[in-house]
TrEMBL record:
Keyword Cytoplasm applies: no
PANTHER family reported in the protein's UniProt record: FI03373P-RELATED, MULTI-COPPER OXIDASE
Pfam assignment, any one: Cu-oxidase_3
CDD domains linked: Cupredoxin, CuRO_2_CuNIR
UniProt protein name: Multicopper oxidase domain-containing protein
Record keywords, A-Z: Copper, Membrane, Metal-binding, Oxidoreductase, Transmembrane, Transmembrane helix
Residue ranges of the region described as Disordered: 426-480, 507-529
UniProt feature, compositional bias: Low complexity: 514-527
Stretches assigned to the Plastocyanin-like domain: 685-783
Native species: Brachybacterium huguangmaarense
Source species, domain of life: Bacteria
Transmembrane segments: 26-43, 49-70, 115-135, 147-169, 181-203, 224-244, 250-268, 288-307, 327-352, 373-390, 396-419
Matches recorded under Gene3D superfamilies: Cupredoxins - blue copper proteins
């Protein structure tokens, strides 16, 4: 008897297996979004990341997966294993490209961002080509036009990615706004919107278990042709700087959306809502309403931009009335109201269907994902409305928490759906029941009466009555009481958010928006209907003009242009409105919706406010005493008189690495300095957001030799302009000491012709802030003929002006010369807990410098006498001098340096200090342990 052949193994990438593998990035993006939402305050570019992780990461990946699913279903094709594997590789390539794009934005490296954007574009064009090949190979199908639309929409995202890459390079201000609108139109309308509309046409009737109305089927052809054309018109209007043309494109797109919406409403009239799981149709319907409303608002803004005061389109907006604030205001309704709701609604229906297991298992999964459907949908949508309309920050925070909670609830419900589906399957296997009919991919599109009519519905109703009470919402039979109760709970939750937020916003302010803007005791101003526009230039530590006048109730739009070639700036008003960081050459809009009282503003870059970079919005007809002082200072970077308590008896943290005090033995020759901002510990239990050369407070100690060259290659990887001043060389300051912008570099070459200990530091204004933030170091050029020693150490003194732990230094303390701690080699008392070491009879040379920015030092070693002193290029004392003199202290002013020599004649613990005793008590102290 011939041996039995092994049973064929199941296809490792069957439809279900493919969905599980392809959906892993979607789950990862969901988790990443939740994490980022919790920690966004401490993440740079957090808003950009939230938007693009939601659109590129979550929505785009999901669209690619489900568009492929619908293409297979509509064309009635079944991909082989090789095709499935290519599809998974394509999704992974998309994920990697998105990660590279995000990394480029976080690192502020436009080339990396462009590489990621090119990867996204290439992946989507690959996807479009794959759909086109699948379409050509398939037999004629009723809804093949939908797949054509998917391919065209995927190509639009490739175009939009190109616009995004161009924005990463900070194009001229005239083009930034045009590219931004074109980028949004291609991605949001051309790709996400078109794919969503085509899917809703086919999926909507299936969700509601009704036949597709003929009018809805006719809208497929209109959408396939009209949506890309309308998007192209919008992009053309954006690039040409013609808001009316862009408005025509958006209006045409809106008309297509309305046609689809009306067709779905007609289909909904025929649905038997008592037998439906409610969450999918409610969520998708709400999403379509948000899309319609957002598009209408966009048309109004574009038209208003044309009829308002006209000029070149702004740097980050469209110009006229439409600026960055307007465009950003559309983000929440489009992504939160439309995109995320549509995605969760569709997934709530499709996931149980794809899991399969028979009609009962599918219904069980649908029931779990529709738990509390009306309450969730009502609460989420009202929370978005509250967020968009609220004036107070606490109200917006609570509204965003409520909306986020509804979104996060999808995850445990999804887990429950899987568990319940598997449980139903096991129960049927135990009873020996066979599923009446396995759900297939074609059940999710273009339903027929056989699949969705009375017969099928009757079986479902019988199962629903057996499995759960008919009045439980989401269980397949929905009672009016449960729907009403869910809606009431959602409404109550939204009202609770509104009441709680208003109470917190009004607490201690005297109530009303007037208090928030600093006009206590007055009623909120009524809108006047007027708009005041002003253009401000940020340059040379000034806003020009630094004062703008409006009348109470006016809407004020400030367009701030950063005309500094190397330094970022921003404008923060005491009432909380801010432009955010503005890169050199870029612009941003700051909008005060209703001017209620005069208010001060300033640049929050550390030190800039102290140098006079302030602004005033003067409002006529309002009481004096605006939110210009204490209420507003909390939003500023500078903390004024921040009270800091540092326990210098404690050791540095376990993660702190003691700075090596040994002078380099070999000449430096050439070295690269990379400027970075980094949180660095400067005292036990306290850190600052430092500006550094090569990552540490106090840059590397360099060693030169008389008459030899020294070259520093300076690279600015920070977020603002920086520079370098090497005191050891004679050069033209214009060439090598200039401030360079982020991403730029220069070579700084000198010849060390003179002996001494020379300071180097950043000379970008405010210089005191940059130096106090860690941008300093020493160049040691030993004199000829020096005597040999056993040890050669370096101690550089600087001052620490501490703000909030982990934040910038306190610029007000710097101006007042009130240091909290004194640092040696970048940390207070580090050598008390990790002493210098020598042996009895050994001789040491200690190089010392006062780096400042402002205080002198008087260097002394307790128990020792200096027999050699060298300061500022000359010996003040030599051991061989016939006078037999000695020195107890070396006094050095800011930027001065030298060395002392002494011999440790006895063992014990010596203490090196600054004999400005208060500075010693602030951390200017080191121990020298001398052993036998």
């Amino acid at each position: 008897m011939p041996p039995l052949s092994p049973a064929p193994s199941p296809d490792p990438l069957s439809r279900g297996a493919w969905h599980r593998r392809a959906s892993r990035p979607v789950l990862a993006w969901m988790l990443a979004l939740v994490v980022l939402a919790l920690v966004h305050r401490w993440v740079p570019q957090a808003r950009w990341l939230l938007v693009h992780m939601a659109t590129l990461g979550l929505l785009t990946t999901s669209v690619m997966i489900w568009a492929q699913h619908f293409a297979d279903a509509l064309l009635r094709t079944r991909a082989d294993e090789a095709a499935r594997r290519r599809q998974v590789r394509r999704i992974r390539a998309l994920t990697l490209s998105i990660l590279v794009t995000c990394a480029g934005m976080l690192l502020a490296v436009p080339v990396v961002t462009t590489v990621g954007a090119a990867g996204v574009a290439g992946t989507m064009i690959w996807f479009a080509a794959s759909l086109a090949r699948q379409l050509r190979a398939a037999l004629a199908a009723r809804f093949s036009r939908v797949v054509t639309g998917y391919a065209v929409a995927a190509s639009m995202l490739g175009i939009g990615a190109g616009f995004g890459a161009a924005l990463a390079f900070s194009p001229p201000p005239r083009w930034q706004g045009r590219l931004l609108l074109a980028h949004q139109a291609a991605n949001l309308l051309g790709f996400i919107g078109t794919t969503a509309l085509l899917t809703l046409v086919t999926l909507g009737p299936t969700v509601m278990r009704v036949r597709m109305p003929p009018s809805l089927e006719r809208s497929v052809r209109r959408t396939v042709v009209g949506a890309p054309c309308a998007t192209a018109v919008t992009i053309a209007g954006a690039l040409l700087g013609w808001p009316l043309l862009a408005a025509v494109g958006v209006a045409a797109y809106t008309a297509l959306v309305v046609v689809v919406l009306v067709g779905l409403i007609r289909a909904a009239r025929a649905a038997r809502w008592g037998s439906l799981p409610l969450f999918p149709p409610l969520s998708m319907g709400a999403a379509l309403m948000w899309l319609t409303g957002t598009l209408v608002v966009t048309v109004v803004l574009l038209v208003r931009a044309r009829v308002g005061p006209w000029g070149p389109w702004g740097a980050v907006g469209v110009g006229g009335e439409l600026g960055e604030a307007d465009l950003q205001a559309l983000t929440v309704p489009f992504i939160g109201g439309f995109g995320l709701q549509l995605l969760l609604g569709a997934m709530s229906f499709l996931m149980p269907t794809v899991m399969g297991g028979g009609p009962r298992a599918v219904r069980a999964g649908l029931a779990e994902l529709s738990r509390g459907a009306t309450g969730r949908v009502v609460l989420y949508n009202l929370a978005l409305v509250v967020y968009l309309l609220a004036d107070g920050s606490w109200t917006r925070v609570l509204a965003s928490i409520a909306a986020a909670a509804v979104l996060v609830a999808f995850v445990p419900l999804m887990v429950r759906a899987v568990v319940m589906s598997l449980r139903v399957r096991r129960d049927e296997e135990t009873r020996g029941d066979a599923p009446r009919r396995e759900v297939t991919p074609t059940d999710t599109v273009a339903p027929t009466r056989a699949a969705t009519g009375d017969a099928a519905r009757g079986g479902e109703a019988r199962t629903a009555r057996r499995d759960a009470p008919a009045d439980r919402e989401g269980a397949g039979g929905v009672g009016r009481r449960s729907v009403g109760a869910g809606a009431a709970l959602g409404l109550a939750g939204a009202l609770g958010v509104l009441a709680g937020g208003q109470a917190l916003d009004h607490r201690g302010t005297g109530g009303g928006r007037a208090a928030a803007t600093g006009t206590p005791g007055t009623d909120a101003a009524a809108p006047s209907g007027r708009t005041v526009r002003a253009s401000l230039s940020a340059h040379d530590m000034r806003f020009t003009p630094d004062r703008v006048t409006a009348r109470r109730g006016d809407r004020v739009v400030l367009t701030v242009t950063n005309d500094d070639p190397t330094m970022p700036h921003d404008l923060l008003l005491a009432t909380g409105e801010t432009t955010g960081r503005i890169a050199p050459g870029a612009s941003a809009d700051l909008v005060v919706e209703v001017a209620d009282g005069s208010v001060d503003g300033w640049c929050t870059i550390v030190g800039h406010r102290g140098m006079g970079m302030v602004f005033s919005l003067d409002v006529q007809g309002a009481e004096a005493g605006s939110g210009s002082s204490e209420a507003g200072r909390g939003g500023a970077t500078e903390t004024g008189s921040t009270v800091v308590s540092v326990d210098l008896a404690q050791p540095p943290s376990a993660s702190f690495v003691t700075r090596d005090p040994v002078v380099p033995r070999e000449p430096t020759g050439e070295i690269t300095f990379t400027v970075r901002e980094a949180v660095q510990e400067v005292a036990p239990g306290h850190s600052i957001r430092a500006m550094t050369y090569n990552g540490r407070v106090m840059g590397p100690v360099l060693r030169g030799e008389l008459g030899r060259g020294l070259t520093v290659h300076l690279e600015n990887a920070g977020t603002m302009g920086h520079s370098l001043d090497l005191h050891a060389g004679t050069v033209s300051p214009d060439a090598v000491m200039r401030t360079i912008a982020p991403g730029e570099s220069l070579d700084y070459a000198i010849t060390t012709d003179h002996a001494g200990m020379w300071l180097y530091h950043c000379s970008t204004m405010p210089m005191s802030v940059h130096l106090a933030s860690g941008m300093f170091g020493a160049v040691i050029v030993p004199p000829a003929g020096r005597a040999p020693v056993d040890h050669e150490w370096v101690l550089v003194q600087s001052e620490g002006y501490l703000g909030t732990d982990g934040e910038e230094v306190d610029a007000d303390k710097i101006a007042a010369e009130r240091p909290d701690v004194i640092l040696w080699n970048g940390h207070a008392n580090q050598y008390v807990h990790d002493p210098l070491r020598a042996r009895r009879g050994e001789r040491a040379r200690i190089w010392v410098m006062s780096a400042g920015p402002s205080r002198s030092m008087s260097f002394h070693v307790v128990g020792g006498v200096f027999d050699t002193v060298f300061a500022e290029g000359a010996y003040l004392l030599r051991a061989e001098d016939a006078t037999g003199g000695g020195s107890q202290a070396l006094h050095l002013g800011p930027a001065q340096g030298g060395f002392v020599e002494l011999t440790f004649s006895a063992s014990g613990t010596y203490t090196a200090v600054s004999h400005a005793v208060v500075d010693m008590e602030r951390g200017a102290r080191a121990l020298i342990v001398v052993e036998e």
